[in-house]
Amino acid sequence: MGIRHIKAKIDTGARSSSLHALNIETFDVDGVDMVRFAVQPHQRSDAKTIACEAPVHDIRSVRSSSGQASKRIFILTEVHWLDTTWQVELTLANRNKMGFRMLMGREAIRGRMLVDPGQSYFGGRPKKKKRKHW
Fold it and tell me: What sections of the sequence does the record tag as coiled-coil (predicted)?
């Protein structure tokens, strides 16, 4: 989808995975249900916005961490982490108030990785840009 880097939380308590998406809009292309949306991949920043489109994989009811059920659009996309690429189902939701722009649930990581709750940034921290000093 053109998103090079996004900080994701691995959450074994969540069944499904979710991507922070804004301006979610469904449309039809030759009988195929599609969705367009915007992604702001950087935490606490709206400086960069990436326009995305994907086929709608499904629409299902999802229960949030607060217990609220809502219908959400699911898409299929590839995730690349370390030296592995695999396909995951993602729900599209506004995660602006959440700590992470992406959540990887247990279905996405099942059989692919073990989780050490005492570790962070297992895949490495992204390189920080050097600030200009005037």
Answer: none
CA 67 from centroid of its chain's CA atoms = 20
**89 residue type, one letter:** E
Residue 114 located in a structural domain = no
Global pTM?
Answer: 0.81
Question: Distance between CA 62 and CA 92 in Å, rounded?
Answer: 11
- The candidate with the shortest Cα–Cα distance to 22, out of 86, 58, 73, 61, is 73
Return the SS3 of 4: coil
Give the CATH number for residue 45.
2.40.70.10
Tens place of pLDDT per residue across the chain (134 aa): 778 878 888 888 889 999 999 999 999 999 999 999 999 877 776 778 888 999 999 999 988 777 888 899 999 999 888 888 999 999 998 887 787 889 999 999 888 888 888 888 777 776 666 666 65
User: Which residues touch 95 (CB under 8 Å, ≥6 apart)?
Assistant: 18, 19, 20, 101, 102, 103
For the chain, the domain total comes to 1
